[in-house]
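Researcher: Good morning. I'm working through a list of sequences from a screen, and I'd like to move beyond sequence-only analysis. For each chain I'm collecting a predicted structure so we can compare shapes side by side. This is the next one on the list. No need for commentary yet; just the structure.
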Amino acid sequence: MFRLLRWGFILALAVLILYLGPYYVNYTRARDAIPPGVTLAGLKIGGETTDEAIANLRAVFERPILVWHGDNRLVLRPEDIDFRVDAEGMVAEAQTYGRGRYAIQNFLAYVTGQTLPPRDIPLQYTFDRQKLAAWIREQSETYDHEPLPPTYSLSTLAFSPGKPGVRTEPGQTAINILRGFTDPYDREAHFALITEQDEKPGFEALEQAMRARFEQFPGVYAAYFQFLPTGEEIDIDADTVFSGMSTVKIGIMLLTYMDNDLPLPENITKWISITVTSPTASNAAANALMFHLGDRDLMRGVRRVNQFYQDFGLKNTYILTPYNSDIIPAPLQTPANTNPEYFTNPDPAMQTTPRDMGILLAEIGRCAEGKGALLAAYPDKLSPEKCQDLIGWLEQNPLGWLIKYGVPEGTRIGHKHGYAPDTQGDVAIIYGPEGPYVLDIYVYQYGWVVWDMSNPLMGDISRLVWNFFLFREGKEQLPPPVYEEDAQPGTDQ
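Model: Good morning. Structure tokens for this chain:
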């Protein structure tokens, strides 16, 4: 019986060997370095030998990736940050599933056609954190940027939004890059960017637009802008000297208010009215005001006005003679008229700069609100009511051209303009969409100022300023002004 059992076992074993032999031969021939059912980082990595499997694993993961900073396409190589897959360790761990009891399980599954339970070896890698941080920092210094200012069009005198700023968030960016290196299929990564947008753009874009429009004027120009609520300024050669003309009459009228209580005497009211509203020459009325300021001594009145300008710190503004005087005085030297950069043939009898007149009118505007330098310097002579009354007269200036033509009809604007054969100026306080602002512009052309050049220039600049405030408020901007060909400036000096 024992012998029969032994021969039966031998026979069964022989039959099993004969049956399984071909399977085993085929199994060993088809077997890779990585046991069946085992994946590396989720991938079936082939390779007849261990070295081939290691090389194949590295070929998948140790490749450059594309990194996007917004629209900027960058390439990051593994060696740039010492990114290295531990392919030897991963393959060695995978091969443990091909030895011992796993070897028998694998063969039986092959014979019976069964599916082995999945076994995955997680991706194992190293990289240099400092090199990755340095690379991210280098790219962010190159491609991060502050919010870009609005753009403008001189054909429409309108503004369009600029681009928002971007700032790199380095921590999330590093995570995104490592995800790109460890993903076998999606070999791209994106910088984590924080978008930054100015809530309300500053006046830099407005200044740029103003300068571009000024450059189209064939002559000397200068301008001053101040936004009264914040004191922010735009200075376009604002210390350039020009003939004072009628614009310096603002100081004459202000000093008159300082000398008198409200309501003003009837005769003074008449002279101020003529000074501001006369469609022809208002020089006689201005002289009458200075005659009153000098206690019936016109030259003394002139000296008082001149002294006021100097005392208030407007060192580039003076008046040495009455209007229409035949006297040609020696020019008073000032920082502006001793600067040789621009020649404007300034009147030796009366001179000013856009900055001086702009600051004076801005302080009158603040005085009307119960604050500012004028009230601080002359608390016993000025009051908000007096400054309000003066601005009210400036609002009655009937000239609708120059700066006034650039703002919508019905806008509250007080301004004083001045004409000379070769020079024109306009000084205005405008109550705009965000509050009051001062804008004054002076131009000079050799021999004669061409009205059809100067008037559109001032109107366009004024419209640019108004539209910029509408743009900041998110409101619809106005189209460019339409200038009449037969418009004339008048004869006021």
